[in-house]
Amino acid sequence: MEMHQLRYFVELARQGNFSRAAEACYVSQPSLSQQIMKLEDELGQPLVQRTRKGARLTHFGETMLPRARRILLEAECIRDEAQAHNDIACGKINLGAIPTIAPFLLPALMERCLAEYPQMELSLVEDTTNDLVSGLRNGRLDFALMSRPFPWENELEARTLFDDELLLTLAESHPLNKRRRIKLEDLAEYPMIVMKDMHCLGRQSISLCESSGLTPKVSIESAQLETVVSLIEGGLGFSFIPKMAAEQMKHRRVGFHSVSPQSVSRAIVLVWANTGSMTRTQRAFHDMVVELSAVPRAL
Fold first, then answer.
1. Contact 145, 268 (CB under 8 A)
2. Which of 25, 49, 52, 174 has its CA 20 to 30 A from that of 244?
3. Where in this chain does the record put each HTH lysR-type domain (predicted)?
4. How many CA atoms lie within 13 A of 120 on its CB side?
């Protein structure tokens, strides 16, 4: 069993296609296919099922995939340590973030990363929670910034960074906007605007209302936070906007309010795959994010 065979197998599982996997590994398709067959012959079991559309892992392949990833990660850790010089992290980090976090946290995070680790390559992906979790589980992503709850929590590692308050957001002309205290039950007669179900903020907002005995009258669903705020400005309903977003929207014709009697928030977490160890570059990035999140207004 050779390391390059495991690398080809993991990439084939990621791509689901021999041609794309070969391209990603910088080898010809026949060469990659031959090495996969050699690996299968040595193991005595088929790893992939070849189809007209590409390749699909067999049950045995699904079982072997996490082990192959761990072996490659350990090998990368060894190379990382051997090649380390002057304590500089110089590898690549694939980072994902949900849309209600990305525009508000990533600029400061990237600035700090470039300043502290100029040789670190940071690749960013903005996507929904489900797709980010999928990326973590199949190895496309090293880390993701999201909020709890999220799928497969028991299979992933997560570090809570801070709590982000969810602020009730009303048009300036809304009858409740001038009140100093607003309870959720005060909203019963008003329409609600939410992010679409694929976005966790929409589900969190509805769950927040329902947990207080309020059945929200959802009138509009949107895929963009900016659109939600614009619709609120137009007097079409209320919503809950994360505080990190509200701080950059003070110029908008809306009012932001903490819910009475107890404010509500979402937990912002850094999530990564439970592989048992991290490369030196991954550890440096993890520690930097945790350190940065502990400084008020640093993120």
1. yes
2. 174
3. 1-58
4. 27
Closest-CA residue to 182 (of 203, 164, 168): 168
Burial of 115 (0-12, 13-18, 19+ CB in 10 A): exposed
- At residue 68 the predicted structure's pLDDT band, cuts being 50, 70 and 90, is very high
For residue 153, count other CB atoms closer than 10 A to its CB.
Answer: 13
Q: Which CATH superfamily is domain 165-265 in?
A: Periplasmic binding protein-like II (3.40.190.10)
What does the block give as tokens for 278? Answer: 């991290």
The pLDDT of residue 133 is: 95
pLDDT digits (tens, 9 = 90+) for 143-174: 999 999 899 988 899 999 999 999 999 999 99
Q: Which residues, listed in sequence order, are joined to residue 34 by a DSSP beta bridge? A: none
User: What's the confidence (pLDDT) of residue 86?
Assistant: 45
Calpha distance 242→221 (Å, rounded): 17
The model's pTM is 0.71
The pLDDT assigned to 84 comes to 58
In the chain, domain spans: 3-83, 92-162+267-293, 165-265
